[in-house]
Every structure is written in C-alpha cells, then in structure tokens.
Write a structure and sequence with these properties.
The complex is a heterodimer of chains A (about 375) and B (about 375). Chain A is α+β, with helices and mostly antiparallel strands and about 375 residues long. Chain A contains eleven helices and ten strands. In chain A, a hairpin with a 2-residue loop joins β2 and β3. Chain A is globular, with a radius of gyration of 21 Å. The longest helix of chain B has 29 residues. Classes of the chains: A alpha+beta (about 375), B alpha+beta (about 375). The interface between A and B is large, with 44 and 46 residues.
C-alpha cells in the first residue's frame, strides 16, 4: 500500500483541516476554556460538532453506528487536533475507548457507543499507576465479590477522568503485579460508589485525575472481554493510544514549525529578515527533514496497525519515540527562534511547547519506547 | 485475487525459479556489486546468469519502458518488484550510474535515437558510465566549472580536468558537464556524452583514507566529441545536471532500503556486549533508521506519482547520509579494538574501519549536507535570501 492518503482519506483530511481550523482554533477553544478555568478543560459543544462530522464514532463498527475506519483516518483527525491544540476527548474516547469497547459484549457496547457516536458521552482511560508509564505492572485489583468484582487501588494521569461518563480501567483480577496474565478491563461508570478524584490541571491546561477506587462494587456486565485475559486487549488499546498520540504530536510539531517559519519571514533584526541568516536556515531545514520523517513513520505504523501486521507493535513504538523527539525539537526551536516573544503568554508558540510535553508523557515517552524497540528487536 | 496480487505471485515465482542461491546472500562489500560494462569481470557464474536472466525480462530496470530495455512496470508494480526482491533477499542484478543517474536524465531530455541507443545498453549491462561533474576548483560551487569545449563545427574539442570521478578508471563512457559559453555562468554549460577510450582522456585513481580508490582525477587533453553526443540543448546542460543530481541524491540517501532495514542494536547480542549506554544509543539510532526507512518508502511512492516536492531528494540525501555516518560510528564503537584492525582476516581486510571511513564521504559527495540544507531552506521552506 503506498504511503500516502487514498482519495477518501485525502477528502477526510480536507474537511477535517477546515473544520478544526474554524471551530477548534487556539483562541476559540484552548485559550477560552483555560482562561475561564473550565473544569473539563474542553468544550462539550465542540464534542457535539465532532459527532456531527462523524468523527466521534469513526473507529466503531458500522453495526454500532460507526464508520469502521482505521488508525490512518483517526490520525488525520489527531494531526489537526495537534496543529490547532484543540482540547477534546477524542483520543481517550473515540480512539482508545472505542478500541477497548470493540471487544465488549453487545450490552456494554449498546450502553456506551450510541452516546459516543452522538457526541454526548466521554470516556477516560485509567492505565498508569505512578508518574511514569509502566503498563507491564498493574497493581490496582478487582477481587471477585458476589456476582461481580470489588475494585481497589489508584490510577494516575487519567486524562478527562472527572469529565468522563465511564472510565476504562485496567485492573488485576489474578496473579501478582507484574504478571502478563490476570489483567481485566472494566468500563466503570462515573457514578459507581467509592470512586474518588483528585483532579489536577496540567501544564497544557488539560484536566487529569488521580483516581482512587475504594472498594468500588462492579457487576459482571462491566467486564470488557475475558476475565483475566485482558492483556491482549490492553495492548490493542495501548497501541491505539500510542499511535494516536504520535499522530497528534506530528500535528503539534508541524503547527509549531509553520508558526516559526512565518516568524522567520517577518521578524527583522540587523536590517534583515532573520530568516536570511544561514544559522537559522540550516536549523529550520533540519527540523523540516525530521518532521517529514516523523510523519512518514507515523503513517507507516498506522497502516501496519490497520493491516494487522506482525511488525505493527515495533513500528508503533518507533513512531511514538520518533514523533516525541521530533515534536520536542520543533517546540524548542520554535520558542528559541521566536526570541523574547516566544516566552510570552500572548504568543501561541509556548502553548505548543506545553502540549508537546504532555503528549510525550502520554502512553510512554521516547525512552520508554526506545527500550521497547530494543526488546522487540531482540537486544 | 486482485490484478496486483496476481502480479505479485507471478514475480515471486519468477524470482524463486530464476535467482541463483549465491545471489540471495547479502552484499558484503563493493566487490560483490555487479556493475556491468565492457571490461567487467563477473565474480562468478551466478552473478552473470542473474544479470542476464533479468536483463532478458527487462528486470534490471523494471520501471523503464519496454522499448528501452525495461519491463514497463507502473509504480505499484515496481513497488511489488522491490518488495519481492527484498523478501527473497535477492541482490540487485545490476547496479550502475547508468541506471540511477544517466537513465532518468536521458528518459527526460534525450532524443528518441539516444534513448534507444544508450538506454538499451545500460539495461543489458553492456556499458558502464561515470559522471564528470566536480573539478578541483568547483566542488560545492559546481556551476563555476571550467572544463571547456571549443566549437569546431561538427564537434567540440574538450580540455580540462574533473575530480572525484567515481570509477572513471573502470568506466566505458562518461556523462560530463562542459562549458560551451564562457560568457554565461548557468546557461553556458552543456551535457556531453563520450567514450572514455577517446584519445586525450586519461584517469588517475585517488587513494582515500579508507585505503581504496573509488574516485579518480580525469584529464581531458583535446578530446574530440561529436555534436550528436549532447543531451538536451546547447548551453542548457545545467537543467539536465540538476535533474540528474536529484536522482544522484536519491541514490546516495539510501531511500528504498525498505523494510528489511536491519537494526544495528543486534550487534550487541552478536558481539556478546553488555553495555547499557551503548545499547541506549543503538536503540535511539534504530528508531531513526526505521523511521527513515519509512520516509524512503513514502518518498519513492510519492515521487512516482508526482506528489513529492521536486527538491525533496535534497532532504533525503541530507538525512540519509547523516544517518549512515552515525550507523558506522556506532558499529565501530560496538566493534571496539577489533574494528580497528586494518587488514586482518577476522575483519575481512579491515571492512568495518574502511566502511566507516568511506561513509564520511556520503555527506560530501553529490552535494554537501550544508548545501542540501541551503536548498531545502530556499526551495522548500522559501526562506528569504536563501
């Protein structure tokens, strides 16, 4: 399959680019919700508009009211979200959440997917325990109790945790913390008794929660897939989140880069446009090269994931690591080349730096994925 | 089965039936490459047989038109061909500057007569070409070249000197940039083809830090070149040269290495090393290398359908060569003192060190990394004054 968009994908990209620039722009969304200290960190009105565009259920099966699209298409949306720094629950709900629910019972899908497709329901995903991403170790436990389970433990970095109608929780139902088996995914409704939130605003103005589960009673219908056999599904959710975050990062990186090259073409010092200086030209050209490579490996990994390739897992980690490094370079160069104004809140370039930092940490940073690349490559 | 999948099955079976086992082992050094040409000595019968059986089907240049010795594959078919070759671990049947550089230029700028005459010979491996571009005083500033062709009616008389002429001592013909108008810088250069056995042509190999001599100095002393041997218009050779440079840069970038790109991190397990810092560096490199392989694939896909920016080969050349230099720095580090051995059997005659030194030329030949960045800044980013 060639590594460029099909006609259908190019049409989707066209409409999403226009939509996100018009409706999801920095002033209208990110700055607005930040400046009024919104407790969600995003707008439900925009989420509804995502639904009207057909985006919220794009990965869901047609039988569930979705469009049965793949990660290439989701990546098109995420790149535009990244370019515009658009706050939305798309990645946790429509990408990771819908991926988790793809293997859920008819009942569970019927309970959550119609609301997602309609842009009325938001999902969060609770995987991390601690400040760094280590999904191989899951200590949060769901003990069997009566006909269901009792969930006890804590999860961190749960993006949109307090806004979510349900939280997809990876919990241990048997074995010890680092066992591969014995993991089960649950769709925990927000009103279940015993859930405690410590909501925190992050550097990029997104809301995350430290969630405590204090003997939360769950009936068997909240189980997604097989009890104790959730590791494979968790890996699918992780891959979806990782390649999604990577796609968003390429959008953040190229948004920052576009802003920076525009600045190089307008700012004058020493009687010249600063873009005339070779010191800056070479750095900009290097950054361009890196961004092109990051975009290429992201679409490659998306295609492999959509095609069910055995190389997908490796290439998703390559893509997440590469996108993180390159996007980081783009925002650092962006702020530096903007000079003093790059440090001001008035200019948007600093907002890109904040978003990049949060996305890098989400579902494993570049070092985490470099370690995975080494392991998956057999060294 | 789709048409393309049927095509894939056909190609797979053909390679299986026709590629000799000796041609399915990795190329170890430049020695293993089949260059073709009048004086080429095949390394073994398998190398000759593989080239000839491919040439007969047009598979040495699968995407060239059938009339010029190719197989007439469309971009999707050519990609299948590359994938199936990689899958079988088959060596390229024929490698040459005629295929990579002159061919594309002739397809675009050559007359019908030139295409039929020269391209067929290239495709069949009958003629080996070298490239006369750089001169002692004209490296990065190539357009300042001084080699002069004096108009003598039905021919030119060429005098001057070229340098860094790859394999000039082994080549049959040269494609050469010659000044035909001293009053015009860019529009005073012509693109000429001539036989290296023409009286007045001499070559002198240059010994490099790697110990080998892939490059030559090439001297022209009153060399007669018939006027039929010009490609494109008189004094417009720079257009041909630039177009060809795009293909040269694409070639040097290593685009098309494809998915079989092996990770360098594996040298750790091969060499029994336990070095966490080196392991981290290797993993960081492998990420960049696998990402670049994806870029190479995307670039080739896009260039075949006209979606790539015309200046994109410059970016590819920059990124690919810097990466290759890094690869060999890491291989030297992983090899330790063994990799320092210059002519031992254990290192197959110092292959690691010699290859490492050879790669230092990658970011100089065909346009330096700094020139590549200049071109990207100007033509792609459109930065002011660049």
């Amino acid at each position: 399959m060639p590594l460029y968009y099909t006609e259908d994908q190019a049409m989707l990209a066209d409409s999403v680019t226009g939509f996100m620039a018009d409706e999801g722009g920095i002033k209208k969304q990110l700055r607005h919700w930040r400046d009024i200290n919104c407790k969600d960190g995003f707008g439900h009105g925009l989420w509804k508009q995502f639904a009207e565009m057909g985006l919220t259920g794009m990965l869901a099966a047609e039988a569930d009211g979705g469009l049965a699209m793949g990660h290439v298409e989701a990546g098109i949306v995420l790149a535009e979200i990244g370019r515009n720094l658009t706050p939305s629950p798309f990645l946790t709900t429509s990408v990771m959440g819908v991926t988790a629910l793809s293997e859920a019972s008819d009942d569970l899908r019927g309970r959550w997917l119609p609301g997602i497709v309609a842009g009325e329901t938001v999902l969060a995903v609770a995987i991390d325990e601690g400040a760094k991403h280590k999904p191989d170790k899951i200590a949060c436990r769901a003990e069997r109790a009566g006909n269901g389970f009792r969930l006890t433990g804590a999860k961190d970095f749960v993006i949109h945790g307090t806004s979510a109608d349900a939280i997809i929780v990876a919990a241990r139902t048997s074995g010890s913390d680092s066992d591969a088996d014995g993991v089960t995914l649950f769709a925990v409704p927000k009103d279940a008794a015993g859930i405690g939130h410590n909501a925190v605003r992050l550097v990029d103005s997104a809301m995350a929660s430290h969630v405590r589960f204090d003997g939360v009673e769950l009936d068997g219908s909240t189980v997604i897939g097989e009890v104790d056999g959730g590791r494979a599904l968790l890996n699918k959710v992780l891959s979806a989140g990782r390649i999604g975050a990577a796609a968003e990062q390429t959008g953040v990186g190229s948004g920052a880069f576009a802003m920076t090259t525009t600045y190089l073409k307008t700012r004058k010092q020493f009687g010249k446009l600063i873009g005339e200086f070779q010191a800056l030209q070479h750095r900009a050209a290097h950054l361009y090269s890196e961004l092109e490579i990051a975009e290429a490996v992201v679409i490659k990994a998306q295609q492999l994931l959509d095609g069910g390739s055995e190389r997908a897992e490796l290439m998703v980690s390559v893509a997440k690591a590469k996108a993180a490094r390159v996007c980081n370079l783009a925002v650092r160069e962006g702020v530096q080349m903007h000079g003093g104004v790059g440090m001001t809140d008035e200019y948007d370039i600093g907002l890109y730096m904040k978003r990049e930092r949060a996305l890098t940490e989400f579902m494993g940073d570049a070092n985490y994925h470099a370690e995975r690349v080494a392991q998956l490559s057999g060294y | 089965m789709s048409e393309l999948e049927a095509f894939r099955a056909e190609i797979r079976a053909w390679i299986e039936a026709n590629c000799p086992a000796e041609m399915r082992t990795p190329v170890q050094s430049e020695d293993d490459i089949c260059w073709g040409g009048r004086n080429f000595v095949f390394k073994n019968a398998a190398q000759k047989a593989w080239m000839e059986v491919c040439a007969a089907k047009g598979y040495t240049v699968p995407d060239w038109p059938v009339a010029y010795g190719g197989a007439g594959m469309n971009p999707a078919e050519a990609k299948v061909w590359r994938e199936e070759m990689a899958r079988a671990g088959a060596r390229p049947p024929l490698s040459s500057f005629g295929i990579w550089m002159l061919g594309p230029a002739l397809l675009k700028f050559g007359t019908e007569e030139q295409k039929v005459h020269y391209l067929g010979q290239v495709a069949r491996g009958e003629i080996r070409w070298c490239q006369g571009y750089s001169e002692p005083g004209s490296g990065s500033d190539l357009v300042s070249l001084q080699t002069y062709g004096e108009d003598k009616g039905d021919h030119w008389v060429v005098n001057g000197q070229k340098i860094w002429t790859s394999y000039a001592d082994k080549a049959d013909w040269i494609f050469c940039l010659v000044r035909t108008d001293k009053a015009n810088t860019y529009q005073g250069i012509s693109f000429l083809l001539f036989d290296m056995t023409t009286p007045g042509v001499t070559t002198k190999p240059i010994k490099l830090i790697s110990g080998s001599s892939p490059f030559c100095e090439t001297f022209f002393d009153n060399v007669k070149v018939p006027k039929t041997q010009i490609v494109g218009q008189l004094n417009r050779g720079w257009d041909v040269a630039k177009y060809l440079l795009g293909h040269e840069r694409e070639m040097i970038s290593g685009a098309g290495g494809g998915e079989q790109t092996s990770t360098v991190g594996k040298v750790l397990t091969r060499n029994g090393l336990d070095d966490p810092m080196l392991r981290a560096e290797l993993a960081a490199f492998d990420i960049d290398a696998l990402a670049f392989a994806a870029m190479g694939e995307k670039f080739l896909d896009e260039i075949k359908v006209g979606k790539a920016h015309p200046a994109q080969p410059n970016m590819m050349k920059y990124a690919g060569t810097e990466l290759n230099k890094r690869r060999h720095e890491l291989l030297m580090a992983a090899g330790g003192s063994t990799a320092l051995e210059w002519d031992s059997e254990a290192t197959r005659g110092g292959a690691p060190a010699r290859s490492w030194l050879r790669t230092k030329a990658n970011s100089i030949e065909g346009g330096t990394s700094e020139v590549m960045l200049n071109v990207v800044a100007k033509r792609i980013l459109e930065l002011p004054g660049a």
